């Protein structure tokens, strides 16, 4: 390490930054380490990496010059690798591309050289009218494949990841039972809004499906609320059927206590000893809620609600 000081390292880092070999943030990091820790083995090894990168960029510049036709230098001449790298870093500094994408492209250009497609993409990005660099090709082989299939490139640029997920969850939310739908449909709505924000192709369709799911949830919720608020307030035919039913067997508290959630309607009818009377029925999206009632002659009664044929709620009044 003798003969090399932290000031030498700092001077070399500034030189490498001016030549476009390293970015300003890289220079600051290693400059700070050199000031704090001195000239360590880690710094020497990193400087060797930077020098190798400088040699690769220089070779790329020389190869570019050899492939250029002899013509006076001007705006139409092809830029060098170092110039392209400097352009990328300026775009990253302005927020047009992120730093990770900038580093990725630096590596690709150093290894694969530059071509007209790369130059065109950078010029378009400078005017904020271009396609992201992640879709550009640094080599001639990739350039030819993208130019031959512009429709495929456009399709890749509009991949509807969030839209597909929102459509799937929205469709499932319309098919599953109510209590599962109230979790799935809001998630579908959020994903569909993200899809619209990202301008995906399926975004608007996903919003429509999610909105239909929300409407269905609100409708079923209203029906359930109405039934639970006043279970006897049903249509006239159902009310008269319920009130006029006089079962030969009385429903008692002991029978009521034997009923468990998840029992089928047939099991409940056997346990009570009679089939009771249907008070109301609501069906939507493959989900059915039916309410049955049993009433004794003295006015005591029992109400049972079945969701898709299974007991979920029961209540009683005056049973003994």
Structural overview:
The protein has 4 domains: 6-67, no CATH class; 81-157, no CATH class; 161-226; 230-317, 2-Layer Sandwich (Beta-lactamase Inhibitory Protein, Chain:B, domain 1). The termini are far apart. It is an alpha+beta fold and 320 residues long. The chain is 61% helix and 10% strand. A 4-stranded antiparallel β-sheet has the order 1-2-3-4. It has 14 helices and 4 strands. Helix 4 runs parallel beside helix 6, helix 9 (161-175) runs parallel beside helix 11 and helix 10 (178-197) packs antiparallel against helix 11 (203-229). It is elongated, with a radius of gyration of 37 Å. Strand 2 (287-295) and strand 3 form a beta hairpin.
Give a brief rundown of this model.
With 320 residues, the chain is of the alpha+beta class.
Secondary structure layout plus pairing:
Layout: H1 6-18, H2 24-37, H3 41-67, H4 81-93, H5 99-112, H6 116-126, H7 140-148, H8 150-157, H9 161-175, H10 178-197, H11 203-229, H12 236-244, H13 253-258, H14 265-272, E1 277-284, E2 287-295, E3 301-307, E4 310-317
| Number of DSSP E strands | 4
CATH topology name of the largest domain, in short, is: Beta-lactamase Inhibitory Protein, Chain:B, domain 1
* Morphology: elongated
Mean pLDDT equals: 76
- The sequence of SSEs as H and E is HHHHHHHHHHHHHHEEEE
- Using the CA coordinates, give the radius of gyration: 37 Å
Helix content: 55-70%
In the sheet with the most strands, the strands line up as: 1-2-3-4
CATH class of the largest domain: Alpha Beta
Structural class: alpha+beta
Task: Tell me which CATH architecture of the largest domain applies here.
Answer: 2-Layer Sandwich
Strand % is 5-15%
**Unreliable segments of 5+ consecutive residues:** 136-148, 153-157, 234-248
By DSSP (H or I, 4+ residues per run), the number of helices equals 14
The total tally of domains equals: 4
Distance from N terminus to C terminus (CA atoms, Å) equals 98 Å
Q: Main sheet? A: 4 strands, antiparallel
């Amino acid at each position: 390490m003798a003969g090399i000081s932290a000031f030498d390292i700092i001077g070399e880092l500034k030189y490498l930054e001016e030549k476009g070999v390293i970015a300003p943030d890289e220079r600051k990091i290693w400059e700070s380490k050199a000031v704090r820790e001195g000239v360590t083995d880690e710094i020497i090894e990193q400087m060797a990496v930077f020098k190798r990168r400088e040699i690769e960029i220089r070779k790329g510049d020389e190869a570019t010059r050899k492939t250029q036709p002899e013509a006076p230098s001007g705006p139409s001449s092809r830029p060098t690798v170092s110039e392209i790298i400097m352009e990328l870093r300026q775009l990253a500094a302005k927020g047009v591309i992120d730093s990770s994408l900038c580093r990725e492209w630096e590596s690709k250009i150093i290894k694969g050289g530059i071509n007209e497609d790369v130059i065109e993409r950078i010029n378009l990005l400078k005017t904020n009218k271009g396609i992201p660099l992640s879709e550009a090709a640094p080599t001639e082989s990739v350039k030819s494949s993208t130019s031959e299939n512009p429709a495929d490139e456009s399709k890749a640029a509009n991949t509807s990841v969030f839209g597909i997920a929102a459509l799937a969850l929205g469709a499932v939310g319309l098919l599953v039972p109510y209590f599962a739908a109230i979790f799935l449909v809001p998630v579908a709505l959020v994903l569909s809004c993200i899809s619209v924000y990202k301008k995906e192709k399926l975004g608007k369709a996903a919003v429509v499906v999610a909105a239909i799911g929300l409407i269905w949830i609100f409708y079923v919720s209203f029906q359930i609320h109405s039934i639970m608020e006043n279970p006897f307030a049903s249509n006239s035919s159902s009310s008269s059927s319920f009130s006029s039913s006089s079962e030969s067997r009385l429903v008692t508290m002991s029978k009521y206590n034997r009923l468990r959630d998840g029992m089928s309607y047939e099991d409940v009818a056997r346990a009570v000893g009679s089939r009771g009377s249907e008070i109301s029925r609501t069906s939507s999206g493959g989900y059915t809620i039916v309410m049955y009632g049993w009433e004794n002659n003295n006015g005591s009664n029992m109400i049972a609600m079945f969701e898709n044929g299974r007991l979920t709620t029961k209540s009683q009044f005056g049973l003994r």
